[in-house]
Amino acid sequence: MRGHDMHSGAEAAQAAPGAAHSGHAMTDMAHGAMTGFLGPYPMTREGSGTSWVPDATPHEGLHQQLAEWSVMTHGNINLIYDNQGGPRGGNKTFVSGMLMTMAQRPLGEGTLGLRAMLSPEPLMGASGYPLLLATGETADGKQHLVDRQHPHDLFMELAATYSQSITKNTSVFIYGGLPGEPALGPPAFMHRTSGADNPEAPISHHWLDSTHITFGVLTAGLVVNDWKFEASTFRGREPDQYRYDIERPTLDSFSGRVSWNPTRELSLQVSYGRINSPEQLAPSINENRLTASAIYTTAFGDGHLWSTTAAWGRKMLRPGETLDAWLLESSLIFKNNVTLFMRAERVDENELTHDIPGLDGRTFAVNKVSVGGIYDFIRTERVKFGLGGLVSRYGLPSDLVTEYDRDPTSYMVFGRLKML
Predict the structure, then answer these.
(1) pLDDT at 15
(2) Domains of the chain as residue ranges with CATH
(3) Which stretches of 319-405 are assigned E, i.e. beta strand?
């Protein structure tokens, strides 16, 4: 759940490693540093759920000390006009974003953490927003979402953690969420520095990080120096079309993940999961998922930042096909309030033509590249406001050209308000 303020984050990443992971030395608010929820390492390492990002990831948010509680609040909101090209495209104006609060305090010899994250996206309605080549879930409980992205639920995370140090560099932890995120995949796309400024969801989302909102998660893990080993049991079914409720936490699936941060700039993970009946409209199909990812984040020049994520995901449908997805995304955040970003993806899709006679049941390898940027022309100590845009182009097999047009182009323009 990281942002990317290049000033406070660099200080936090340097100050935190020397802090003990105990109730008596958890925070150093004078230096903007908080130690991790799950172990004796800088909090800048923690991504969404229990995932890791590089230690060099800068840290955004409003920090407060309330008695024994160390609290961080962070959020952003985007007002977006979306125009997806071609005959299967569309246009829509909508709001996306999140508001999250994280708090920790000593409890016994360990650390208690609480997390809450909310989203305004249910306000966009049951149909979500147009996004060519995106599939997965249903927004109304009746139809598959094809060439559209579903809205996230109002409650994106309501979770608690407890960690206990064993030695100076070793800890054990538990995590529970309703909703929460199991140990499966890289950090969710809106929490990776390489992708956080891009308001468009990846079309590889359901191969990599779609379990980031799961109604029922229990995770146990072990941190040893720069390694983390964890296992989860969780509800396999994706959120339904009712975006404002809390769903029943049936624990019928499991996953495991190994993470390694060999340097301050690099974070690696591999994970595997068995997901029971993830799709509401295809309840008899289960899924095995395998993912691997690498995130590299580093400062350069006079206060600039570069972050890149490379990821691969494989869905093994049971019964059904094996489908792969590849993602490469990168962001350059310049000190002069300019941000540039890109994302390239290749996905094996089997849902794009499920309702088209002659093409139904077929799998197509599709490609997408997006590039964009933001200029923050208002910036204070606590918030920044900017205007941005992005353009997307596609590589399609010949059998899909008549469906999508030979050379569709899509774009988004947006205004963003973000807490620092």
Answers:
(1) 36
(2) 8-419 (2.40.160.10)
(3) 322-333, 338-349, 364-379, 383-395
